[in-house]
Every structure is written in C-alpha cells, then in structure tokens.
Task: inverse folding
C-alpha cells in the first residue's frame, strides 16, 4: 500500500530534471523505424529471454507470465504503457507494435524526445564503446565518457578490443615502438578527449579480466608488448600498468574514471579488487558503476575508507529493485549525500524510461523508509533526491 508520504516523495522526484551519469544510447541512424520486437531485442529484457512471435497471443502471454517478475521486464512494461498508452498483453501486442511504429514514423527524433521529455534528461554521460568520445551529434544532450578498453588490447598493434576498436587509432604518434611511448600516448589521447568534449573516462574491462590491478613494474609489463606469444600473466601485468596510466591521466585531466564493477565475468570483479589502484591514486575521482552488484558490502567499505570514491547506482534498480532500495539506504548511512549518482545504462530510449521508473520507485521507497526510521524528514529526503538525480552529477562531471 502506497502511503501519503511515498506519494509526496515520488511526486517531487518526478518533478526533478535528471542528469544520467551512465548510458550507451545508440546513434540516430540506429534509433529509427522502431517496432516492439526491435525494442525487446535491444533492451535488457532480452537478457532474460528472446521474445516470441508477437502475433501469437498465447505465446506472448506465456512469455509475459514467465518473465514479468524479472526487474528488467517489470519496468520496461511500465515504460511501454506510459509512453504508448497501451498495456503489453497477448491480445494487445500487435496494437502496441503498431503504435510504436507509427510514433517513430511520424518523428525521426522520437528517441531524443523520450530522453528529453519523458525521462527529463538535461544531460546524459554516454559511452559509445565502438566509438570512444562520440557525442552522437547532439552535444547539448550527450557528454561522452571516453571508453579506454582498447588500451588493454594494445599490447599488439593489430589487436582490437571486443567492439572492434584499435588503441593506435587514438594516438597522435602511431609509430610507437616502446611501452613507455605507448603509455605516453594514452595520456595524450585522454587529454585530447577532454579537449574534444569528453566529460569522463570509462573502463569496462571487468567483462574481460579481474579487477585486481597490482603490477606497476614497467619491465614486467613490457614482456607482453609486441609479443604475440605473451602469456596470460604477462598480458595481465601489461593491463595493470595500463590501468595505472589511465588513473594517472584521469587525475591530470580532472576527468572522473568510471569503472564497471560486479557482474561482468563475475570472477574477481568485486570492488575490493580495486583497493591497490585506489590507494595509489588519491587524486583520481573513481566513479564505481553498479554498486559492485552483488558485492555491495565491498562498495560500502571503499566509500567509507576513501573520499575519492563515488558510487553510481546505475543498473542496480534494474537488476533488483528490492536490493537497490536497501543499497541506497545503507550506502547513504555509510558515506554522505554528495557521492551517489544515477545513470540509465541503456541503449534504447524506452529502456532508459524503464530504468528511470525503476530508480524513481527505488529512491521513493528508500527515502520513505529513512523518514520512517527517523534518519530524515521530508525536506532532507527531497534534498537527497535532488543530490542523487542531478546535483552530484553536475558537480562531478562539470556538466
């Protein structure tokens, strides 16, 4: 049962303009001529299941009944009904599909209008992993987070990162011959990214390797450089030095360093693996993504121990809305009001809307619980809401 207090908090949250601190929004050419199936396939709902034939009502109902408990599905369904005025059921699937197609046919900027109007985004820190530093041609809305993963693959000049991007394409001097020269070019590339409008740096290497960056020995790292027969240990040593170089460049440029924590490959990707890196880079602003889900306690410990840690609650409400509520309450108890942000972490505008609905629900319940517990009154709850959804991001990223 929703209380009057929750209603008041939720109404306030839904009045706030938003800065989304982490997204993967697609460029215009990939955001046209949408239909229901393309949305379902490109949203997080597809992580749980591939949609059935939308013309088969019984198959659609079976699909919905099986997966509606999943947080990704729950909030995408809410978003679709909010955006198109049609509930998603077996009987209405084709009607909803037609409404989506018609909306995109009438308005080529629909995906942007959803972000600006329905999601209330003033700015969006966007990571286009296949094109580092790209603002999608809309610099008024998108501030790039410069993706640095290609540098970890750069021990071989002809080795791209998983999205097909080559480190050397970002270098001013492509004739790099030694590891020190390679590391210097990383610093130059980061400085250039800032000049060209990037608001942050992003590392998602947790999908490829553990996050325990320990090696700072250049000689060890150099054993992998230009070595097609490098061992896994030598490649890890190389990557460690690359990460320390990125962290140093982040401090020198003042750009926050966003790091994917938790999930990924799920082996040694818990946030405490980053402790050596954080301790040795006190001037770097580490923006840790996803709360380290499911290892929340690691992030709590880092927030308490190091003042140069920020927590981005992106993805957590979409992974588990219930867990996200507890995460916010415990995180605020351990840290302070100034080090939490939120990002939609989506490719599609409809999924961005679903992610926002999930966060609004999460934040409402967290703040209402804090009021009930005596940790906040209504005025302070509203202060916290605006800090998390707007002010902290504006200060951290300078947007």
Result:
């Amino acid at each position: 049962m929703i209380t009057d207090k929750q209603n008041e908090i939720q109404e306030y949250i839904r009045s706030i303009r938003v800065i989304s601190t982490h997204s993967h929004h697609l460029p215009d050419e990939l955001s046209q001529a949408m239909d229901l199936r393309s949305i379902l396939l490109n949203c997080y709902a597809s992580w749980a299941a591939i949609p059935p034939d939308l013309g088969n009502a019984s198959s659609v109902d079976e699909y919905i009944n099986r997966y509606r408990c999943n947080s990704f599905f729950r909030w995408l369904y809410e978003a679709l009904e909010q955006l198109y005025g049609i509930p998603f059921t077996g009987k209405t699937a084709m009607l909803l599909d037609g409404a989506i197609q018609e909306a995109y046919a009438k308005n080529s900027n629909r995906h942007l209008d959803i972000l600006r109007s329905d999601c209330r985004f003033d700015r969006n820190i966007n990571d286009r992993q296949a094109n580092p530093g790209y603002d999608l041609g809309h610099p008024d809305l998108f501030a790039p987070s410069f993706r640095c993963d290609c540098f970890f693959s750069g021990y071989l000049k002809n080795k791209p990162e998983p999205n097909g991007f080559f480190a050397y394409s970002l270098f001013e001097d492509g004739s790099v011959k030694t590891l020190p020269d390679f590391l210097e070019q990383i610093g130059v590339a980061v400085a250039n990214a800032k000049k060209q409008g990037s608001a942050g740096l992003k590392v998602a290497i947790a999908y490829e390797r553990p996050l325990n960056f320990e090696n700072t020995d250049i000689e060890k790292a150099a054993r992998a450089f230009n070595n097609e027969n490098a061992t896994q240990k030598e490649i890890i040593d190389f990557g460690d030095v690359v990460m320390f170089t990125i962290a140093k460049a982040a401090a020198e440029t003042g750009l926050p360093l966003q790091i994917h924590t938790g999930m990924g490959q799920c082996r040694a990707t818990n946030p405490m693996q980053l402790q050596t890196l954080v301790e040795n880079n006190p001037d770097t602003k580490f923006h840790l993504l996803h709360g380290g889900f499911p290892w929340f306690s690691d992030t709590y410990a880092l927030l308490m121990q190091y003042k140069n840690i920020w927590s981005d609650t992106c993805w957590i409400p979409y992974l588990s809305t219930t867990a996200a509520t507890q995460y916010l309450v415990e995180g605020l108890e351990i840290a302070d009001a100034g080090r939490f942000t939120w990002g939609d972490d989506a490719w599609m505008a409809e999924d961005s809307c679903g992610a926002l609905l999930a966060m609004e629900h999460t934040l409402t319940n967290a703040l209402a619980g804090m009021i009930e517990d005596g940790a906040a009154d209504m005025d302070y709850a509203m202060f916290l809401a605006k800090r998390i959804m707007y002010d902290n991001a504006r200060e951290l990223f300078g947007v």
